[in-house]
Amino acid sequence: MELFIDTANVEKIKQYCEQYPLAGFTCNPTIVTTENRTVEELVNLAPGKRVFVQAIAEDYEGILEDARKLRAMREDIYIKVPCTPDGYRAMYTLKQEGYGILATAVYTVGQALMAAACGVDYVAPYVNRMSDTEIDGCTLVEDIVAAYAAQQIETKVVAASFKNLNQVVRLLVAGADAVTIPLNLFEKLIDNKLTNDAVKVFADQWEAHFNRRSI
Ligand code: G3P
Known about the structure:
The protein is built from eleven helices and eight strands. It is α/β, with parallel strands linked by helices. Helix 6 links the parallel strand 5 (100-106) and strand 6. Helix 4 packs across helix 5.
């Protein structure tokens, strides 16, 4: 299992990628612009971990150029490329040039299979965004996982686009290899009120008996 955070918050990327067993971080153009950051401020964060930055161009040559610019900033960067007609062409070319590639904005099993045929390292189904349609994100990921198993495809499924932790857990149960979760959900994951309350009672009782909150 690989856990990523989906953010462009520089301070939190530095803190959490150092303190917790995160595999790295992902971002997308909306996240980067909302944080008012630049790609240059992000690409070299989380050294030794996996960093995913999305190409902006929509045409084949433009995606290739964006990818080359990004790899010039960081050799082991992963390029996020959307599952569009030009995106598939670019993924296919970039994989032949040795790039790490994540096929993003996946909504169908067919897209996941096409991206795998291009040789990509990861595919990212947008789980929560599917909830606005008749597609069930969990069922889709189960079908992608089954299709990959049937075809002995090594491409990893990194589920993305979550609005609650139940979705995250369900997708991991469904067989996703990885999830990339928004900062607020990651912080909910590591900081549970019920657990904190239980720990406080333990410490209070210990302190009442031993006059200290430690062994
Ligand atoms: O990178 C894809 C992911 O960030 C989309 O998430 O919450 O915008 O649907 P969201």
